[in-house]
Amino acid sequence: MTNKEWFKQAKFGMFIHWGLYSLLGGEWKGKRTEYPAEWVMTYNRIPIKEYEKLAEAFNPIFFDAEEWVKLAKEAGMQYIVFTTKHQEGFSMFKSEVDAYNIVDATPFKRDVVAELAEACRKYDMKLGLYYSQELDFHEQHGGGVHYVDPWLGCDWANNWDFPNKEEKDFSICLEKKIKPQLKELLTKYGDLLLIWCDDPCEITPQQSREVYDLIKTYQPDCLVPSRVGNGIGDFHSFGDNQLPDKDWGGLGESCVTMNHTWGYKGYDNDWKTVD
């Protein structure tokens, strides 16, 4: 059975959002955000050098990949999608491309993606990896648009460290970091169900195609969502917390939060009902 055939009948998976932003729990210097907590760097326009200090305190000594996987299986979930790099630009895996990662930049010194992949193989759980293929606020050329988004209430680009949009060239980040890190994910952690791309803003059709083709080069059966951009992808990823019409007949996935945030927010306890 191909991944596409399997995905059509899988129905239910676990999306795990985890990064440096988790340490802050939606707060910065006593100020709480009403928006999803994983964008805390952009809401507060935190300079890179200040935000990097979070890595020095990131030491999740009680992380247990097997516990996560067993919990997902007990809940009836068929697959896990894990955030390997969100828009903050910090990698939750050992990367030879960029030292700004959980092994080289934190006291934890462990590759959580490697441990999660091993646990998934042990318990027969399919694994997908989220990777922000355009937005990277740790990089001068990390993509994005310089305007305040009404839904998130903040800019979709690091325009406080790098205010001159004319000096940005996303192709540099694409070649220097994005493609090499995708290659690492596709060659170091075994067979993957999917690479969960996200937030295509100004990525060109050619660049979306290059990302898609790169993924298929290393793992031809690995699925790519429509969020790779420009009408490309193996299945449609609906908007955050958006459910399709009942009559929608294509292959798709709805990513849905349990409360109102993806990243951990310590004061958001407005949980959805079981139904």
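The record above closes out task 2.4. Task 2.5 opens with a second protein, given below.
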Amino acid sequence: MAESVSRSVLVTGGTGFVGSHLVERLLRNGYAVTCLVRDLRHLRWLEGKEVQLLQGDCTEPESLAAAVRDVSIIFHCAGLTKAQQARDYYIVNHLGTKNLLEACARYNNGIEKFILVSSQAAAGPSRDGRPIDDTSTPHPVSDYGKSKLLAEDEVRGYKDRLPVVILRPTTVYGPRDTDVFELFRWASRGLTLEMTGGDRYLNICYVEDLAAALLLSAERRTESGSIYFVAENRSYSWSEFRELLLSTGGVKARRIKLPYGAAYLLGLVSEISSLFTKKAALANRQKVREAAQRYWLCNVGKIENELCFRAEYPLQKGLELTWKWYRKNRWL
């Protein structure tokens, strides 16, 4: 049975991909939503939404007091998934989380729940093909994953002072995403890329399923410090993913296979290009290292058993909806 919770919540990262979907679900469920926004001139997906807006930044501790006061639940969705410099991951993902927790402890230590959106990258890949769970020793293979693991460490350090929960979604895709979107964009142009060395396997998560899991983590009773992986309860090979991507989009594409060394070199070129464009490179060397791992598999039994979570969007359905959104909004 759902725990009775108050209806006042703070969402960080509400202008972003995951955060904006969460905000919409919270509003549909009757929550009073406050969003911490870095620039009130650029509301993106929050434009026109019935939310309270507070200007602030998790990397600026002095801006957080007003945001955390008088809210019952905090969903910390803000974070970097790509960065020009590795240190930026640690400043935003790690220290930003630390600052927010310290603000809670100082200005709202009666908070009902602090929920961190972490990542499967914090745990790292499975090394032997067996799905990992919250008891597995983390082995992140990128600075992004390491920064998320440090953020988790900060959260767990507060588990005896504040009720805290950590969600580790796998690769998240869906409308508004700009990362996995690149696979859709290249497929629409008739090309897919993959590395040589055999098939790779992954769990994957549609964004609406993640938003549902976040709401459940707020409304259900949880032990402070709990970690939950979030994904569809089945894995896919990269070959299966590719075929579904093409079939749901009604496109045909040529398959280009790259050795790891060539992919790594492309990542380096992309990073060098980013120095001139001043934009973080998506296909950098660390992302190539993550993509080269054979098994990104996790066990979602814990979230299913404890929070009664069930993914409602199998990959085929999620891909169909995502293609439709990209085309309707003229991203493709």
